[in-house]
Design goal:
The protein has 276 residues and is α/β, with parallel strands linked by helices. The chain folds into 2 domains: 4-97 and 212-275, 3-Layer(aba) Sandwich (Rossmann fold), CATH 3.40.50; 99-210, 3-Layer(aba) Sandwich (Rossmann fold). Helix content is 43%, strand content 16%. The protein contains 12 helices and 10 strands. Helix 10 links the parallel strand 7 (182-186) and strand 8. The structure holds D-glutamic acid (DGL). Residues 13-14, 17, 43-46, 76-78, 120, 123, 151, 187-189 line the site of D-glutamic acid. D-glutamic acid binds at residues 13-14, 17, 43-46, 76-78, 120, 123, 151, 187-189.
Length: 276
């Protein structure tokens, strides 16, 4: 039987955004191999219904299982909020999402008990960030705000454009008025706006990146389950260390990946995700 320790970690997202999570995994556990799927044909998930997001996520984890992954990271906040609870018990490998690690750290970090969450509309409507934070600490007040313009701005590459700064101001000013001292960047794309968000929020608000917290949680999980890759059996060609799959627009995906990942992505393979 194959040694699971050398199997890749399946990471998926509605598109390119989950690369921010893949990037954190590579930074924190560089010995691990990543097999990434971006559902670029069906993005965005952030405005879709729960039934649709569960159906899409189920197809994707089936695809990842055919590739022999040892664990799955649901890198998409929206899929973590709406589908993880349903699909994780259906799998015989560990499946983790990004919401719970991010929410946990936010609850632990706030000093004044006022936490902001920015995310897609579907994630905000699910109420999961609020539920997890207040389960951890019922005295914390959570203020959520959907910021639907951020995803297209990031995909356009306008990370610190004056237009993006103005949009951030419009979204964040009402949150600032509540007196929050901690803000969860509850969408895959938002960590790429970190500098702009910090500029608008000022120094007194701590920014929480669920991607970072998820990579930490993944590391602990792999250690606990004796699944850490010790590097004894790696692909001969370093280019085969990680692999990337998409459901559409492979070249655009590759370009984005190469603008944010610390290694070169030579190709993204196109697959028909509806077959899974
Ligand atoms: N990946 C999604 C999330 O983190 C953002 C993009 C989308 O709406 O699909 O919620």
């Amino acid at each position: 039987m194959e040694d699971l320790r050398y199997a890749p970690i399946g990471v998926f997202d509605s598109g390119v955004g989950g690369l921010t999570v893949a990037r954190e995994i590579v930074r924190q556990i560089p010995g691990e191999r990543i097999l990434y799927f971006g559902d670029t044909a069906r993005v965005p998930y952030g405005s879709k219904s729960q039934d649709t997001i569960i159906r899409f996520s189920r197809q994707i984890v089936h695809f990842l299982q055919t590739k022999g992954v040892k664990a799955v990271v649901v890198a998409c906040n929206t899929a973590s909020a709406l589908a993880l609870e349903t699909i994780a018990p259906e799998m015989d490998i560990p499946v983790i999402g990004v919401v719970i690690p991010g929410a946990r750290v936010a609850a632990e970090s706030t000093k004044n008990g006022k936490v902001g969450v920015i995310a897609t509309k579907s994630t905000v409507d699910s109420g999961l960030y609020t539920r997890v934070i207040t389960e951890m600490d019922p005295s914390v007040q959570v203020y959520s705000k959907a910021c639907p313009l951020f995803v297209p701005l990031v995909e356009e590459g306008w990370l610190s454009d004056p237009v993006t700064v103005e949009v951030a101001r419009r979204y964040l000013e009402p949150l600032l008025e509540t007196g929050i001292d901690t803000l969860v960047m509850g969408c895959t794309h938002y960590p790429l706006l970190r500098d702009t968000l910090a500029q608008v929020l000022g120094e007194q608000v701590l920014l929480i990146n669920p991607a970072y917290e998820t990579a930490r949680e993944l590391k602990h999980l792999l250690e606990r389950e004796d699944l850490i890759n010790d590097g004894a059996c790696m692909p001969e060609d370093p280019e085969n260390m990680h692999s990337f799959y998409v459901s559409d627009a492979a070249d655009k995906f590759r370009e984005f990946a190469n603008s944010i990942l610390p290694f070169w992505v030579d190709r993204a393979k196109l697959i028909g995700i509806d077959e899974y």
